């Protein structure tokens, strides 16, 4: 169960109630202003990340190897989109759990990420097979 869906609203209510208990209406005004500012900061970050991602091809990342190294279990999808500056190519059905996305770099290496409830559960990087070096070198 995702406790943040319960704890955050309860925390906001306790914060505003504490402000009421301590300072009455001026406290409620300050506490409400702080909560609205916190919500606006998160909204602004989300819009900034999505506007940057809208300017890039879907499923593209500069380096799949570097992206693979930076990933950590439990980060949310918005954080991954911010790292790649690109929306992932969806491999799973829409509105089905787990969600699976793929990011590919220009060298055809790719990372497939699996998200459950918006949190990164696992990822797998695949690199293309190296080309045969003897065929590409001219013989003497």
Description:
This protein is α+β, with helices and mostly antiparallel strands and 140 residues long. It folds into two domains: 55 residues; 70 residues, Beta-lactamase Inhibitory Protein, Chain:B, domain 1. Helix content is 50%, strand content 16%. It contains four helices and four strands. Strands 1-2-3-4 form a four-stranded antiparallel β-sheet, covered by helices on one side. Helix 1 packs parallel to helix 3.
Task: Give a quick set of tags describing it.
2 domains; four-stranded antiparallel β-sheet; 140 residues; single chain; alpha+beta; Beta-lactamase Inhibitory Protein, Chain:B, domain 1
What's the CATH class label of the largest domain?
Answer: Alpha Beta
Task: Tell me the structural class.
Answer: alpha+beta
Q: Would you tell me the overall average pLDDT? A: 91
Q: How many domains make up the coordinates?
A: 2
Number of DSSP helices?
4
Per DSSP, what share of the residues sits in E-state strands of 2 or more residues?
15-25%
SSE order: HHHEEEEH
Write the CATH architecture name of the largest domain.
2-Layer Sandwich
Q: Which spans have pLDDT < 50 for at least 5 consecutive residues?
A: none
From the spread of the alpha carbons, the general shape counts as elongated
CATH T-level topology of the largest domain: Beta-lactamase Inhibitory Protein, Chain:B, domain 1
Largest sheet, in brief, is: 4 strands, antiparallel
Let me know the number of strands. 4
As laid out across the biggest beta sheet, the strand order is 1-2-3-4
Q: What quaternary form is this?
A: single chain
